[in-house]
Specification:
- This protein has helices at 25-35, 54-61, 73-85, 96-104, 110-116, 130-134, 136-147, 173-189, 238-249, 277-287, 330-335, 353-364, 374-377, 401-419, and strands at 12-17, 39-44, 88-94, 121-126, 151-152, 156-159, 165-169, 213-218, 223-224, 230-231, 253-258, 270-273, 293-296, 303-305, 324-326, 342-349, 368-373, 382-389, 392-400.
- By secondary structure, the chain is an alpha/beta fold.
- It folds into 2 domains: 2-189, Rossmann fold; 213-308 and 318-418, Rossmann fold, CATH 3.40.50.10300.
- Strand 18 (382-389) and strand 19 form a beta hairpin.
- The protein is globular, with a radius of gyration of 24 Å.
- Mean pLDDT is 88; it is low at 1-8 and 189-205.
- Bound molecules: cytidine-5'-triphosphate (CTP).
- Cytidine-5'-triphosphate is lined by residues 217, 277, 296, 298-300, 302, 327, 329-331, 345-348, 360.
Amino acid sequence: MRGIMEPAQQKHIVLGITGGIAAYKAAELARLLMKQGVGVQVAMTEAACHFITPATMQALTGRPVLINQWDAAENGMAHIAMGRAADAIVIAPATADFIAKLALGLADDLLSTMCLARDCQLLVAPAMNRQMWGNAATQRNVAQLARDGVDILGPVSGVQACGEEGMGRMLETEELAREVVVFLQSRSSVGRASARQGDVGLKPDLQNLSGVKMIITAGPTYEAIDAVRGITNRSSGKMGYAVAQAAQELGAEVTLISGPTALHKPHGVQAVDVISAAQMFDAVQQRVPAADIFIGVAAVADYRVAQASAQKIKKSDGNLILELLPNPDILAYVASLPQPPFCVGFAAESENLREYATAKRKAKNIPLLAANLAQQAIGADENELILFDDAGEHVLPRADKLTLARALLQHVAKLYKDRL
Ligand code: CTP
């Protein structure tokens, strides 16, 4: 399957689509994976073709979709070989029926035959009605697959296509794509027991942070004024979460201490939710003695209200004056510990980027600072970073935040290892 068209280091999956309503989401999943450089070969069951057309999947992936094992006996064998040569087979959505087939080892169509004849990891994303999911037979089959070493991704609880609410919804496509990429990356950089010799990753020269303990702060903080109001900022948390995911991909043990955001936590990170800067500071203080690397991405509020009211403050005719007290500088505190972890700071500036960033790195006494222009970064999906370290400046050109986070982590890992 690794053919003439793609570079050798590219990872390939077979995306197996089975016959459930969530099949329509497979189109978006294929698109997201391809955007991240993963080669996608689609294989569908006959039932899946009732929910989404092979033409759609073929147009998106640029490859003919595999459906029928009897199309041509000769090709049937080649198709099975494709499953063998893939880095993973991902079944999304996986119906209760298909899961049952996998658990029993049945091979009565092309996709189930590919699964049975595979020589790679199988990742299964169940999607079904809550009662089908709760049925003892399904639970038994899923448990059997887990015992067989199959990765089960989801499901989650939520509103279902039939209008009912409960467990059985397929993981959101973005999260599924993330899971698949993390799996492919971890095979490349960390090397799972099952990884083939000489296997190369999405990026062949990836640094490995296997076993390195990392604390990442992310998002804004919220400083209460009264029971219903507070002071916060426009940080979305996207950059911090991307940094957490990139670190996770390299094998680090990540604790993500996050202020209030609307984002899903990257799979596998240890998540600690906080609201105020004081809570973030507490959470960091408790965990920092065990950390090897600390990355402060959070937009921590510099001030808190001196006397937050437990009740809603009523309107009056006069001015309302709030007294603000400075919050502790979490990054500066961590960097000043007697044996600090390797510290990385972020700086969002609205002007004089180079001057302020250089001064901030010095003031906080940290080896590396990533700076950007706040007006371009806040809430956006793309960004541009300049890294400041002892060697000078390094520009990470405009890209989506995950791409930037991966490049940043490569730089962090190199500097961290040089110091050991
Ligand atoms: N930071 C922190 N605790 C604070 C303030 C900032 O840990 N109370 C961290 C941030 O997570 C970031 C870095 O310090 O990594 C710089 O944050 P920034 O808000 O840009 O700088 P400040 O130190 O707050 O300075 P200023 O607001 O004057 O630019």
